[in-house]
Amino acid sequence: MNDIVPFHYGAHEVRTVEIDGEPWFVAADVCTILDIGRVHDAVRGLDDDEKGADTIRTPGGDQQVTIVNEPGLYSLILRSRKPEAKAFKRWITHEVLPAIRRTGSYSVAPTSQLDILRAAIDQIEAAQLAAQRAELVAEHAAETVREVGHRVDALEGNHGWYSALAYARRRNWATSVDFLNPLGRRAGQIGRAAGLRAAKVPHPIYGEANAWPEWVWDQAYQDGAGGAA
């Protein structure tokens, strides 16, 4: 039976024991923090050298508990989808392990396996962060397109000149680049030939676009620019 050393992570207790100079963690405590429901199933997926059992003293008497070593701990962290997992890993590596090392009994150098696990966690965290950022950017871009699109419609609807996008929208036509670009080029040729200068209006993608009177767009479309609508 080994002496239990408890660490407190917020309102939760993480019990640790040292076996042959190596820290082991009570699996149930770790799974509670990581929101892993079935401790037995989670531990069963670990390698044999990552898990074990120990008897600890509790107020209700001696109790045998499942424990995991540092590699086993990181394996459990990798399985957790809870955002808390990142902060928990940092707490383990920056507070718990240094505190154990200060006792002088835990001085095992990191193994290649630990390095691989730590690197895997860092990569997963970086990928998750990148995915979250990309999602936020996409949401912002979509909202910007909608907002500017409304402004384009309102502005162009007032003065009677339209961009290729607004012209196509008025007719419920395709708004793909393959359709709008040739239509816009032909409208420019017709407008300039008539001595007109394009008006600049906001555009949800390019920032601004050329606007021409509706008759210019009608002529451009009749000339076959843009292909099928």
Automatic annotation (TrEMBL):
PANTHER family: BRO FAMILY PROTEIN, DNA-BINDING PROTEIN-RELATED-RELATED. Residues 1-104 form the Bro-N domain. This is Bro-N domain-containing protein. It comes from Pseudonocardia hispaniensis. PROSITE patterns: BRO_N (PS51750). It comes from the Bacteria.
